[in-house]
Amino acid sequence: MFLALREIRRAKTRFALLVAAVALLVFLILTQQALQNGLITSFVGAIKRQSAAVLVFAVDGQRTLQGSVITPALQKAIESAPGVAEAGRIGQGTFTVVVGDAAKSNAALIGYEKSQLGGPDRLSAGRMPAAAGEAVGSAGDFSLGDRVRVVGPGKAVELRVVGLTDNAQIQVSPTLFVAWPDYVAATRAFNPDAKTVPPSVIGVRPVPGVSAGALTTQINKTSGDADALTRDQAAEKAPGVAAVRNSFNLIFLLFALVVPLVTGLFFLIITLQKARALTLLRAIGAPAGVLVRSLLVQALIIIGGGIAIGTLLFFPLSQAKVGKLSLSFDPAAVLFWAALLLTLGLLSALVAARRVLAIDPVQATTGGGAR
Amino acid sequence: MKLALRELWRRPGRFAVATAILALIALLLMVLGGLLDGLVAGSTGALRAQRGQLIVYSSTSQESLVRSHITPSVRKEVEGVAGVSRVAGIGSVQLGARIDGHGPRDLVPVVLFGYELAPKGLPDAVPAYGEVYADDSLHAEGVKKGSTIRLGPARTPVRVIGFLQDSRYSGQGTLWGSLATWRSVLASNRPGERAGDGVDQALVVRVAGADAGGQASAIDRATSGATKTLTIPQAIDALPGVSQQQTVFNQIIGITVVIALVVVGLFFALITVERIGLYGVLKAVGASSGILFAGVLVQALVVTLIASAIGVAVSLALAAAIPSGSIPFVATPSRLLTSTAYLLIAALLGCAFSLRRVLKVDPAAAIGGEQ
Amino acid sequence: MTTIATDLALQMERVSKIYSVGDAQVVALDHVDLTVDADEIIALVGPSGSGKTTLCSIAGGLLTPTDGSVIVGGQDISRYSPKQLTRFRRESVGFVFQTVNLVPFLTARENLLVVDEIGPRTGRRARDRADQLLDELGLTDRSSNLPAQLSGGERQRVAIGRALMNEPDLVLFDEPTSALDTQLGDQVVNLIRHEMKSRGTAAIIVTHDDRITHYADRVARIVDGRISDPGARDD
Ligand SMILES: Nc1ncnc2c1ncn2[C@@H]1O[C@H](COP(=O)(O)OP(=O)(O)OP(=O)(O)O)[C@@H](O)[C@H]1O
Ligand SMILES: [Mg+2]
Fold first, then answer.
1. For residue A340, is pLDDT > 60?
2. Any idea which of A183-192, A258-267, B117-126, C59-68 has the lowest mean pLDDT?
3. What are the structural domains, with CATH classification, of chain C?
4. Single residue among A182, A208, A232 that ends a domain in this structure
């Protein structure tokens, strides 16, 4: 401890630079983790938020709500599949809206026929819609009592926000959950040419004893046009989600390599530099273990300090919005990265530790020890 | 100078770790940039391929192609604006494509465009009804000249008669046919969005003269606010997510460059500390600070160039190895070059930290000896 | 750990050290016998390459002999393991080396305290001892200087203080004055004699310097790894 701390104190700038580098890297990693989560949540958050355990898309919808159209025949086939206890229509579309007196903007509407099959599963404020024209909005985009007008070439539809729900965006748009008739009205406001308004997907509840996963297999067997997915699958397999995850994982992998390499290089170099002093200490009777421990204590302080500062830098950012994305401070992710980087960093310091262990104390007699 | 290079060749081991770290950072920069380029290219190709300078949306569309509707009467008004030399309708629809050789549920997401004014790389003549040109990214999905692709739930067939490059949209491959083809595909697959006869989604406008921005407002005035006209670059910026992606990625790239700077700074600061004795001797025999520092710079440049070369090689290998569609990564020469340039600048700045040390070396210290 | 009752600081019997360099063998020490009394100061002189440093290293537990026995302060260290030798060096001997003696990032006082830090700590006692030693060595007002801020003689004095921190049975000096000018060398040797005699600690001083031999109780001459006349007293 004594040696480790004294050395840090005597070479402040050098150690401070390293802490700064680690802190920056940690900050970047955490920011990108939050971006990834934010991106995915704002792409498919509403799919996770809606209450149906199984969603049946049309194969042609390519697993997107906006692309899927359920024909009456397909709907019949789904309803009659074995294991289906109840089915409800769910529609989704993006519309031009006017919130209060603000300028026109975009909002996604999710229309559900049955609130247990497609309505939000949880509210953060307010209540579920009870009357026509009432809606639940994505928290952060809407406030309770907001008046939302869906405008278009057809007859405008008036909605009122009576409830709010978290992490409920779809396609990075402010999102409103409304009852089916309001959704139909909104679709006609946007396109008066629309004759019938088909559902985008069918929400399904399995009979007791049948798991959601088993039900998807059953439904897929029933019709070649049906693409049944559990709620989590529907979120994960949405187009783009895998690409986002893969891209970020590639970046994370590189960052996770850079951190231990930087710390490893640093400790290797300072160990080489003080080889003479270390040889002397070994000669006057310092056990190699004491010297290695002092090295690891330094690594712990540097990496721990870097992680702490990086996290502190990240915290204010995590409360902010990047463009339309809202980020969040995810303690589990912070802990995961802290543990991973600490482990990798300490492992990298072991390279320097090997050098310490290889020191031959007799070199002190010849003034050698610095190679 | 000679001395610096000789040290590099004689003791490559001492520079290996730093080179490895810089190579990783170089790769990180190139991957980040390549992902950004890939994302942007994949979502903007169709707009960049347009031969007009302006694009006219309906004012209710929130500058989104799919939600724009241009009626024949509005089109007439646009055609009447002075300075407008060509007005062409354009329409798009996103559908799942069934391609020979793919499984029954394995649809390829594509965007079908209907056009009047041929995009870059296509002949002026619009293809016959039911015939399309395909973006060459669809080669990877098994599309060939003469292939028949069945689009959407209605399985509307279109025949591929040729290919064009760099015309992707929303990260998907594109097909380019006549407006009539588009209208009929839309009507059979998206009954809720069908466009009446003569209705276009948007207009691509070619203007005489250089003042495209001024023409845009003239068009919007002529339609008395029914349209929202953007230049092509403005329309690209209005695509959801594109500008956010650019800012976020550029910030990340910026911080990564700063980290490279810290790494180089740290490494050469440590190396010069190690060499103070040597520098003392060299100065004592008459070497100037300038010569010594030039040696440090040369080493930094060589190390950075080697690291960048490794980064470039791995980036190219990565670009070749990544299966198309999983990660939107492209390795363009300009990106690889700018990344290398950033790194070189970071390396030179990082070295500047060591300049002070080199200047401070006192030749007398060479005689003073230890400690 | 076996302790043999003795009042000798060092007892080397028929100690040999053979280095193997590739196929060749270098006999650095050839059946050396040497004893040092508990409060005796011995000057070890001999030509370059004669084995002086090797002898000191073996006596101080930095090297193990190829053959023979080495007893320091009653401990037979000739068959000690590297771990035992580390502990032996920490507790029973003091070293002053020719060149590197101090940890560059520690102050003079901390360079003394480091001896306590690398073993089981005694805290207060060690601090008192360090302050007392610094005082005796005339370094009280230099105690918070880093080695780079000390003169050559001061550094050597700090090294002597460090060598005495663990109250050793035997202190080994390998050419302690070779980096110093004549006057300073004289001062340092004077100080060594004073410190050793006032504590009754034994010492071996390796030197080329004839002046030092006057301060020693006895001079041992080593040539080609062999000690001539080990028993004779010089004064
Ligand atoms: N590690 C080693 N490997 C091989 N030979 C060695 C080694 N160390 C010392 N020797 C040899 O052993 C002999 C004695 O060396 P030692 O260092 O003890 O001499 P010395 O009397 O201290 O000389 P000097 O006065 O020059 O310091 C020399 O011939 C030397 O070359
Ligand atoms: Mg010697």
1. yes
2. A258-267
3. 8-229 (3.40.50.300)
4. A232
- B residues 332-371 lying closer than 8 A (beta carbon) to C: 369-371
Residue-averaged pLDDT of chain A? 88
Q: Looking at the structure, tell me whether residues A67 and A196 fall in a common domain.
A: yes
Together in a domain, A227 and A98: yes
Whether B368 has a pLDDT exceeding 70, the answer reads no
Predicted confidence (pLDDT) per residue in B28-57, tens digit = 889 889 988 888 888 899 999 999 999 999
- Tell whether A137 and A66 lie within a shared domain: yes
Domain boundary among A188, A214, A232: A232
Is A270 found in the same domain as A188? no
For residues C203 and C205, give the distance between their C-alpha atoms in angstroms, rounded to a whole number: 6
CA A371 to centroid of ligand 2, rounded, Å: 19
Asked if residue A344 belongs to a domain, the reply is yes
- DSSP-derived letter for residue A152 is S
Residue of higher predicted confidence among A194 and A45: A45
Cβ-Cβ contacts under 8 Å for B161 (sequence gap 6 or more): B127, B131, B132, B133, B145, B146
Return the SS3 of A234. helix
The reply to whether A215 falls in a domain is: yes
**Nearest alpha-carbon partner for A43 in A57, A63, A60:** A63
Closest-CA residue, ligand 1 atom 4, reads: C19
CA atoms within 13 A on the CB side of A365: 21
Residue B203 one-letter amino acid: L
Rama region for C178: left / alpha / beta (φ>0; ψ in -120 to 50; rest): alpha
Q: Each residue's pLDDT tens digit in chain C (235 positions)?
A: 555 656 788 999 999 999 988 888 999 999 999 999 988 999 999 888 899 989 999 999 988 999 999 999 889 998 899 889 999 999 999 999 877 788 888 899 999 998 888 888 788 899 999 999 999 888 999 999 998 889 888 988 899 999 999 889 899 998 887 777 777 788 888 888 888 898 889 999 998 777 778 888 999 999 999 987 555 444 4
Range of the domain at A75: 50-232
Residue C153 Cβ inside 6 Å of ligand 1? The answer reads no
Structural contact between residues B68 and B202, judged by C-beta atoms closer than 8 angstroms = yes
Check if the beta carbon of residue C208 is closer than 8 Å to that of residue C52. Answer: no
Of A171, A167, A175, give the one whose Cα is nearest residue A112. Answer: A175
Q: Is the dihedral of CA B120, B124, B126, B128 positive or negative?
A: negative
Structurally, chain A folds into a number of domains equal to 2
Q: Whose CA is nearest to atom 11 of ligand 1?
A: C28
> Which one-letter DSSP state was computed for residue B192?
G
pTM over 0.80: no
Q: From CA B1, how far away is CA B298, in angstroms rounded?
A: 7
Task: Provide the shortest C-alpha distance from residue A268 to chain C (in Å).
Answer: 17
Are residue A163 and residue A283 in the same domain, yes or no? no
pLDDT at position A179 is 95
Q: Is the pLDDT of residue A367 over 70?
A: no
Assess if residue A71 is contained within a domain. Answer: yes
Number of CB atoms found within 10 A of residue B260's CB: 29
Name residue B170's beta-bridge partners.
none
Rounded to an integer, the average pLDDT of A133-138 is 95
Taking the Cβ of residue C47 and every Cβ of chain A, the question of whether any pair is shorter than 8 Å is answered with: no
Q: Which of A280, A297, A359, A360 to mutate to test the interface with C (most CBs of C within 10 A)?
A: A280
3-class state of residue B50 by DSSP? coil
